[in-house]
Amino acid sequence: MTLKEKSPPVSTSQALGSGRSRAPSQSRTHVLDPDHLSDHIDRLYRAAWGLCGSRHDAEDLVQETFVNVLRRPRFLRDGNEIGYLLRALKNTHANRHRAAARRPRTLELFEDDVPPTDEPDVTAQEIMEAIASAPESYRDAVIAVDVLGLSYREAARSLRTREATIATRVYRGRRHVARVLRGA
Length: 184
Description:
Rna Polymerase Sigma Factor, Chain: A; about 5% strand
């Protein structure tokens, strides 16, 4: 029996003959030069305008992309600066879009924005008087839930009854208050 020498392990790319394995010294890596970023502003701006749809947003997007890229040194392969910058622009746009989706939408309302109502104005005193005129069990349930803000479970516990009973009493109490306020 003869001993054979073991050959070094062969990677799948070498086994398939793709020839894609490169020694680290062969890869052409260089640092993105901040002084030459101005060469790409026009192309980035046009791409940003296409993504955003407005000139103002496109300017902000290009500026934010440059801020992100210049935070730390960037190493590029094959000298494809515009490709890297376009990818960074697209990622910055996606991050802005995701961040905006997480924020709740706000809208400032003015007095003119309030829709006109046909209902007469009701004061807080009239509402409290209407609640006070309700039968005791309905009144207690409405006060616990609507005035104090307790949940049905908490109201049931404090009034020593079941949740379903509280739900019924609140419904009937609200109906009573509405009838009194309408003047029926």
